[in-house]
Amino acid sequence: MKDHTFTIGRITFNSQLVLLIVATTLIPMLDAYDHRIIPVNAYNRFIFYCIFPLIIIHFVFRESPKEFGFQWGNWREGLLWTVPICIVLGAFLYSFARTPEMQSYYAVRAADSARVVIFRNMVELFAWEFIWRGFLLFGLARHVGVGAAIWLQAVPFAYMHLGKPELETLSTIFGGAGFGFIAWRTQSFVYGWLIHWFIAAFTMLVAAGFLAA
Q: Which of 61, 186, 205, 211 could form a disulfide with 78 if both were Cys (CB 3.0 to 4.6 A apart)?
């Protein structure tokens, strides 16, 4: 389907690009309006943000998920990014997550045990990273170029943070682009997922008092 086009009013559209944009717009909207297939948010989002794109890739695009970063890719380079970034961010986040704004936001969202918080973050963020740093990034790159794709995929990702603490939200356009850069370098969304999972779980655990000094 990659090269299929259609024309309306003498304007030509690429079918794959249109479906890619429509899908990555409607899926977050369905989530925002609290449409549920199963009750637990993290698992529901896994279906929306991971399973639905995989279905589109396989049955509509008729391509391999590997073409959209669903693979280990260059794991050596991936680890060279993941480990140092997590160490550096961990030192910063330990102080940042203890600010009143962060504590008031995350404390009420960590009512479950630390184990549940960590696991559900893992599941949800795996899907989040795949739709943005896999499905959308690799899909856009073939149509608009890699550089543009890295920044464009970070836009919906940033908007999905609206309602979170302001400083965190303002940073997400840069964080999203950074994850996109790593995903393209490694040809895999996995390493951005590992970093994002560490950031989210560590922040919540510190802010909620699970990792108090």
A: 186
Residue 212 lies in a domain: no
Can you name the residues that pair with 14 across neighbouring β-strands? 5
Domain-embedded: residue 213: no
Give residue-wise pLDDT tens across range 32-72: 999 999 999 999 999 999 999 999 999 999 999 999 999 99
Count of CA atoms in the C-beta half-sphere (13 A) of 37: 13
Asked if residue 84 is part of any domain, the answer here is: yes
How far the first Cα of the chain sits from its last, in Å, is: 54
Alpha-carbon distance of 145 to 168, in angstroms, equals: 28
Q: Which residues sit opposite 8 in a β-bridge?
A: 11
Alpha-carbon 155 to chain mean position: 11
| Structural domain contains residue 22 | yes
d(CA 207, CA 69): 32
pLDDT of residue 99: 83
For residue 206, CA distances in Å to 92, 111, 122, 161, 184 come to: 12, 13, 17, 19, 31
Q: Which two three-digit tokens encode residue 78?
A: 């991936």
Low-confidence ranges of the chain (pLDDT < 50): none
